[in-house]
Each structure stands twice: as structure tokens, then as C-alpha cells.
Amino acid sequence: MMFGRDVTIAVQDPTFPGYVDNGVIMGQTGPAAVDEESGGSRYAGIEYMRCAPENAFFPDLSRVRRTDVIFFCSPNNPTGHAASRDQLRQLVDFARRNGSIVVFDSAYASYVSGDDKPRSIYEVPGAREVAIEISSFSKFAGFTGVRLGWAVVPDELLYADGTRVARDFDRVVTTCFNGASSVAQAGGLACLATEEGRAAVARVVAGYKENARVLVDTFQALGKEVYGGDDSPYVWVRLFPGRRSWDVFAEILEKTHVITVPGSGFGPGGEGFVRVSAFNSRDRVVEACARLTSFLA
């Protein structure tokens, strides 16, 4: 809404479908068509930045055309890939050269392991001049349904005419949004501002990361092509090479009663994969793995 309809956008492929849906709702895209290579849907007017095992899930920016806005999620939903410091530096430099604004989604930053993968794009020099960062309490504190998040729009981020992007952001937010509920805000403060809250959040994240490790170990033991799980609660797996992701999803659901997400729902680059989530209790994850093992072995 803030940028209007006359802008061009780029997204990772595959990625969280909300970015594409936002562009469609705002009239920033053309019609959808079937992608000849993958069989998935592709909207005209969107630059799909291929993120696949072949390029270590980071786009070849030399092949990406210039757009006004770049949506980038790290760690990525659905692949689980967390961009390295050097990769984010490349992205920031690319945006600066092209006069693009990066909308950086760090909803899964709490799952990042190690210091070589930034939890915020603002760890990269110059990012405050090209990037907005958005995040959520849903993924690290269990606020799904409560609805609480935040956005950072630096004063250094300017339009081509020199005006502050933050000015428009403030206007849109105050016009369209009355604010998160006091209950949600109090819960958010308890998570961040108290020792007890921070410890509870750390336990939640650690538990989901252990669940992800159980999933990865299961698929690896079955000899499947599996990614993610180290820096993300999501596991990205190709179970049956050559088969459509919706067909794989349907067969797993029918025969095991385990719900996965078809990869093609995240963009044409997701075809052939399914996403498996660690967001559940340990007992249920172990049970799901037992059912999948019985089905796939």
C-alpha cells in the first residue's frame, strides 16, 4: 500500500506466498500463467529470484532484473536457508546500485545458529539506506493468533526525491491500523524485557530446533534429499523426484495422516518439494516421523 501499484517487485523463489499475494492485491502484477519449466503458477510482472539447491538457495543477482522492491526472507520460509553475511552484503550492494528497497523479513531470526549468518539485515553496513525490516512474535514466542510484530523503517531510507520513507509508513500505519491490543503488547514486553520471558522464549526456540533435527535425521536415514532445519523450524525435502508436490502431499496425507505443505504453493521453484514443520510437540513429531518412515522405507 505504501508504495502504490506502479512499482515492480522481486521475490525469492520459493518463498512465503504472502509477498506475491500482496502484489496481486495491490495491482502490481499481471495475470498468472503456468510456468513451463516447473508446471507451477507464475505472475507476470514479478521477478522470481531462483533459490535452489543448485545455487545454495541464494539468487544469482547478476541475472536478476532491476525492481523497485525486493522481498527477502532469511531464514527462508520454506527452504530453511539462512543467508550468510557475505550474501546479505551482496543483496544490499545490489539494492544500492539499482535504487531498490529491500523488505527484509526476519521472522525466523531467533533460529539462526552461529555468528556468520546475520539475524538482522542492519548488521550489514549500508543496509539502513536501502532496507525495511519486518518481524513477528509468532514464530519464536508462539503468538500466532495473538498477532504482534514490528517494522523498522530507518530515517536514512529515502525515496529518489529525497523524502523519508518513514514518513509515508507512519501515515499508512496511523490511518489503517489502530495498534496491537494491550494484551498482545504486554505479552510481547514480557517476552523481551524480563529474564523469565527471555528464558521461556529460548526454551521454545530450542525445542522446535530439536524437533527440526529429528525430522532431518529421519529423512536423511531414509536417503532423501533434505535441506533446512539448522537455522529454521522448517525442513525442505524432495521425497519422490519427478513427482508433483501436490500429488506427494495428497499421498502422504491419505496414507499417513501427516500434513505437509506442497512446495509449489511457495512459487514455481518449489515444485517437487514439500515443507515439513517442526511447530508441534515432541511426541507428535516423533509419531509423524514413525509414520513417514513406515510409508517411505
UniProtKB/TrEMBL annotation:
Is rRNA processing given among the entry's keywords? no
Give the protein's recorded name.
Aminotransferase class I/classII large domain-containing protein
Q: Which UniProt keywords apply?
A: Aminotransferase, Pyridoxal phosphate, Transferase
Family, similarity comment = Belongs to the class-I pyridoxal-phosphate-dependent aminotransferase family. LL-diaminopimelate aminotransferase subfamily.
Which coenzyme or cofactor does it need? pyridoxal 5'-phosphate
Does the record carry Transport as a key word? no
Task: Tell me one Pfam family matched here.
Answer: Aminotran_1_2
GO MF term set: pyridoxal phosphate binding; transaminase activity
Q: Which GO terms describe its biological process?
A: systemic acquired resistance, salicylic acid mediated signaling pathway
Q: Where is the Aminotransferase class I/classII large domain?
A: 43-292
Query: Which Gene3D superfamilies does this UniProt record tie to the protein?
Result: Aspartate Aminotransferase, domain 1, Type I PLP-dependent aspartate aminotransferase-like (Major domain)
